[in-house]
Specification:
By secondary structure, the protein is mostly beta strands. The protein has two domains: about 100 residues, no CATH class; about 350 residues, no CATH class. It contains five helices and 28 strands. The strands form five sheets. Strands 1, 2, 3, 4, 5, 12, 16, 19, 20, 21, 22, 23, 24 and 25 form a 14-stranded mixed sheet that branches. Strand 8 and strand 9 form a beta hairpin. The radius of gyration is 22 Å and the shape is globular.
Length: about 475
């Protein structure tokens, strides 16, 4: 039974049941939705306790999440599904919909260093949209990493984060109502400054909103409503208005040290004088599809082996998945728990969230936090929190650390985090990694975005090619 076939099955099953508006369909190991235990040590989540006592414990399940606010006939969901002569058990969870893990306010625990102003910029620091009307347009989130935009020649350096961090209206123009508000991001500033900053225009601008994957809602026909991720990039300037350098791409061992722009802020483990590992020992490549597919492996008896731990650093929580002095949350391990996840998440369209603005993000990975380094059976809270949106997720492959995805959502109580895969991101936006090994690139220094007058402003095309240039959709322009 191949992982690729399992992923395809989850997608097909999800799409066949679009009218039921499942929260998600995925493959992995069940986890409890309530963590409390009774006096005998049994989970109060009775369904999960039954799983722990069953012959299917440790086996991969097709996990189907149902919206707790909707009515379902659970009897029509089979106990097992068949794939390539394998019988796979199903596991049903009633839950709230996952939410975008971003916020416009920060919480009251000691702020991590990630919320400070950084020049040069690097992965894991706070970032936001500041629109051309001089109003905070998006939300504070996290700059995941720098990337190369291959739409230009030579490739231009861009910052990578979430659509919902870099814009406040994320859906594709073709889904919009012409009688409601028009929204655009074509000339928005992207800012990086202390998270306490309430306004842009103060020297915090690092670039302009450049392009994003405009999300198609679930109401579109099958296979036309799938989205590879909640992703967006900005252009970058060479220096900010105060003259401070925004990007530094020097080689390892340079005098800039940890301020290389390909670093992930403080993503190392152990006391500062006794580091066990350092994600940033070399520039981070992006994992290939087969590596991400095998974050967990399926054994011949149907059991799952988790092959990789995960690491991340973000504006809400600092470094996570590690046990070091830079986080307020204590020791933790992050592990992938479900793959091939098709997830339906509500987004903002023209100022509000509605049933019609639920968007299906395909082939995601769910992860959880645990303090069990052997079997990963325990679940700790949180796996992620609001403000970490856009963070890069890192895993180790044969001694080499690579970015596997971009965090964009989570379960509302913190049980799970959800990331879109970096291979899907690269394909959707025509990106590749930016490292110290990159020799051919340019800094665009664009201070005003070039636009064209569209004959059909409510288009379903992600971009148009005109005179050899790509013009990406960034909103609705009324002419």
């Amino acid at each position: 039974m191949r992982i690729e076939d399992i992923i395809d099955f989850c997608k097909t099953y999800f799409l066949k049941n679009l009218d039921k508006r499942y929260v998600s369909v995925s493959y992995g190991l069940p986890s409890p939705i309530r963590l409390d235990k009774d006096e005998e040590g049994n989970f109060e989540d009775k369904k999960y306790q039954v799983y722990l006592n069953s012959v299917n414990k440790g086996k991969g399940h097709v996990i189907i999440r149902l919206d707790v606010d909707l009515e379902y006939n659970e009897e029509i969901i089979p106990e097992y599904v068949n794939l390539d002569n394998f019988s796979i058990p199903t596991y049903i969870i009633k839950t709230q919909r996952f939410s975008r893990t971003c916020t416009d306010v920060f919480f009251d625990q000691t702020p991590p260093l990630n919320r400070n102003t950084f020049r040069p910029i690097l992965g894991g620091i706070s970032v936001s949209n500041f629109d051309s009307q001089q109003v905070i347009g998006g939300y504070y989130g996290t700059l995941g990493c720098l990337a190369l935009d291959n739409d230009t020649s030579p490739p231009s350096v861009v910052s990578l984060s979430n659509n919902h961090v870099y814009s406040h209206d994320m859906l594709i123009a073709g889904s919009r109502n012409p009688n409601l508000v028009y929204t655009d991001h074509y000339d928005d500033d992207i800012v990086q400054s202390s998270s306490t900053s309430e306004s842009g225009g103060d020297g915090s601008e690092i670039g302009k909103f450049k392009k994003s994957w405009r999300l198609r809602p679930w109401t579109y026909p099958q296979f036309e409503n799938l989205n590879p991720g909640d992703i967006a990039v900005s252009t970058l300037y060479t220096t900010d208005p105060s003259g401070e350098p925004i990007i530094y791409s020097g080689t390892q061992g340079s005098d800039i040290g940890e301020n290389n722009s390909w670093y992930q802020l403080n993503l190392f483990d152990g006391p500062e004088n006794d580091i066990n590992f350092n994600v940033n020992e070399s520039p981070l490549k992006w994992a290939q599809s087969f590596e991400i597919n095998n974050l967990m492996s399926v054994n011949l008896d149907g059991t799952i082996t988790i092959e990789n731990r995960l690491y991340t650093t973000g504006a809400r929580m600092g470094p996570w998945g590690v046990s070091n002095v830079h986080t307020d949350f204590g020791d933790s391990l992050l592990v992938p728990i479900e793959i091939g996840a098709q997830v339906g998440i509500p987004y903002i369209s023209q100022g509000s969230e509605t049933v019609g603005s639920i968007c299906n993000i395909e082939n995601c990975v769910l992860f959880k936090s645990t303090d069990d380094p052997i079997n990963y059976e325990s679940t700790c809270i949180p796996a992620s929190l609001q403000g970490n949106s856009g963070s890069a997720i890192v895993a180790e492959f044969n001694g080499e650390y690579k970015i596997v995805g971009i965090l964009f959502a989570g379960e509302t109580s913190g049980l799970y985090g959800v990331f879109c895969r970096i291979d899907e991101v690269a394909s959707a936006l025509n990106l590749s990694p930016f490292t110290s090994e990159t020799t051919e690139f340019m800094i665009s220094n664009v201070n005003q975005t070039e636009i064209i007058d569209l004959p059909e402003p409510f288009s379903n095309e992600q971009y148009l090619e005109v005179d050899g240039k790509k013009y990406w959709q960034t909103g609705i322009i009324q002419y």
